[in-house]
């Protein structure tokens, strides 16, 4: 299972961790992804999504119906 937000598409960022002595090692910045259930009134069922904190704010602002419609238009399975 990938660490990716289904709403915003956020995924891990990659780069270097730089120590005080400038020794560089590779590291990853992980998005804040949570599993959350949403009630879909038009279909009368619950759906479970992997959403980042920003994705949750998007759902609050636009409504779950609009977000699911946009996801289906992109070809994602909901």
TrEMBL record:
GO cellular component assignments: ribonucleoprotein complex; ribosome
Give GO BP annotations, semicolon-separated.
translation
Keyword list (alphabetical) reads: Ribonucleoprotein, Ribosomal protein
Q: Which HAMAP family does its entry note?
A: Ribosomal_bL28
Designated gene of the protein: rpmB
Q: Which domain of life is it from?
A: Bacteria
The record's GO molecular-function terms, alphabetically, read:
structural constituent of ribosome
Q: Which NCBIfam families match?
A: L28 (TIGR00009)
Residue segments, region Disordered: 1-26
Q: Which family does it belong to?
A: Belongs to the bacterial ribosomal protein bL28 family.
**Which is one Pfam family of this protein?**
Ribosomal_L28
Q: What is this protein called?
A: Large ribosomal subunit protein bL28
The UniProt entry, under Gene3D superfamilies, shows:
Ribosomal protein L28/L24 (2.30.170.40)
């Amino acid at each position: 299972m990938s660490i990716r937000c289904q709403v915003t598409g956020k995924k891990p960022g990659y780069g270097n961790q730089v120590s005080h002595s400038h020794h560089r090692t590779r590291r990853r910045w992980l998005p804040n992804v949570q599993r959350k259930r949403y009630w879909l009134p038009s279909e009368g069922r619950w759906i479970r999504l992997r959403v980042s904190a920003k994705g949750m704010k998007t759902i609050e602002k636009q409504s779950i119906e609009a977000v699911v419609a946009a996801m289906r238009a992109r070809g994602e399975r909901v």
